[in-house]
Amino acid sequence: MARAIDRELKRGTLEMILLRLLSGREMYGYELVSTLEQHGGEQFQLKEGTLYPVLYRLEKDGFIEARWETLERGVPRKYYRLTKAGAKELELLQNDWREFTAIINQLLDTEVKTK
Amino acid sequence: MSEQNEVKRYIEQVMSNIHAPAAERERIEADLRAHFQEALAAGESPQAALARMGTPAEVAAEFMAQAPLRYAGFWWRLAAFGLDLAVMIVGASVLGLVAFVLMTRLPRDIVGWEWIPAVALGTAFTASRPSRESSGRTCRAAAGAASSSNTRRR
Prior knowledge:
Largest sheet of chain B: none
Oligomer: heterodimer
Distance between the termini of chain B: 103 Å
Strand content of chain B: under 5%
Order of helices and strands of chain B: HHHHHHHH
Largest sheet of chain A: 3 strands, antiparallel
Strand content of chain A: 5-15%
Radius of gyration of chain B: 37 Å
Strand order of the largest sheet of chain A: 1-3-2
Number of strands of chain B: 0
Radius of gyration of chain A: 17 Å
Number of strands of chain A: 3
Number of helices of chain A: 4
Helix content of chain A: 55-70%
Structural class of chain A: alpha+beta
């Protein structure tokens, strides 16, 4: 089994991933976790306790909006959706990430000269 | 323990480690409760759902780490200083008042209060001391012995 992705690395990219997931449609907390698990597999498993603080931060920054909806069975569900500012932020983050990974890949592919 | 109780207890443990304004606490509690309700409705066992969330301390730490530390402005700090000063003045005044009352109301001649240090020092100390009466007898006996020896010498 592949080594799980470093916790700090996951934490650093979680905002971007959540914005990306919400760019498709609005989702509720548990749904976000389940989708992450489906697409990210075991390597991207995160403690769910880390999810809500990140969502709070995104909401505070105006990148996402939340609304409560009570289902027929009486269970309240909180949906999150991307705002315009969030869409712009996602674009910036994605560009940064692509540039960053390109540089890292370049560095990793560079042959290191040894004496 | 029922499923609901287990989750309820977990949320209570998380909340006991969250030190935030009431509105923020309500929001966190509502989100956690809704999350667990969804997990249980999806067929997860409470144990699995709780394990995936992390320990209550970890979850609380994550929430607390998001709480921004705000620098208090000049007027807030001045108000806090004023409050501290007021508390110190009131405390010193109360202590001064108590001291004044004790000084003016307590009798200067404290005859009858000797038992207080005796009790404080312990009864063993006072019991080991010879009583006034017995020590008087000893003195008188010593004086009598001295006077009889003087008479014999003469």
